[in-house]
Design brief:
magnesium, alpha+beta, three-stranded antiparallel β-sheet, NAD-cap_RNA_hydrolase_NudC, single chain, elongated, 10 strands, about 15% helix, metal ion binding, Nucleoside Triphosphate Pyrophosphohydrolase, NUDIX_hydrolase_dom, NADH pyrophosphatase activity
């Protein structure tokens, strides 16, 4: 979230070059506030259930887009690994049987850093409140979207010996 006004003294923030990066800052030297606009950490899971990848569609998304299970890393989460296991349980009612790091990815449009994991899981799928639908995909048939969590899916598929193809996403 970009601030327009200083949260300390309410003066309008102005762009200022700071260590080679332009940041919004308070023009009052006595205040000295700088808005760093750091990315928000988000965890993501390539959920593997009964030999398939589970992709889900959030209720807020237009059909037909499906993606990985994701959630914010909360300050009460002991670790990113425990956070993604929690998200898989909350959103799909599945129990993680493992949590394996895939990589981290920038999602610039939302100013997020995605920390992605492969999460084998067991149990019966019951969708949480945020999800509208899910689908099961055989890993050999999976395609990835060329951004953020889609790149995590691609990297996991490649590590499993697959040669995934990118989806063509229309520009809105």
């Amino acid at each position: 979230m970009a601030f327009a006004y200083c949260p300390q003294c309410a003066k309008p923030l102005q762009p200022r070059l700071d260590l080679g990066v332009t940041r919004n800052a308070c023009p009052d030297d006595a205040c000295g506030y700088t808005h760093w606009d750091n990315p928000t950490p988000v965890v993501a899971a390539v959920v593997e259930h009964e030999g398939h990848i589970i992709l889900a569609r959030n209720k807020a998304w237009a059909a037909p887009f499906y993606a990985l299970i994701t959630g914010f890393l909360e300050k009460t989460d002991p670790s990113p690994e425990e956070a993604i296991a929690r998200e898989v349980q909350e959103e799909l009612s599945l129990q993680a049987t493992g949590v394996n790091f895939i990589g981290h990815y920038r999602f610039e449009r939302m100013n997020q850093i995605i920390i992605a994991y492969h999460v084998p899981a067991e149990g019966s799928i019951v969708l949480g409140d945020e999800l509208a639908d899910y689908k099961r995909i055989e890993p050999a048939r999976a395609r990835y979207w060329p951004a953020a969590t889609g790149l995590a899916l691609r990297d996991w598929l490649v590590a499993q010996g697959h040669e995934p193809q990118a989806l063509e996403i229309p520009r809105l």
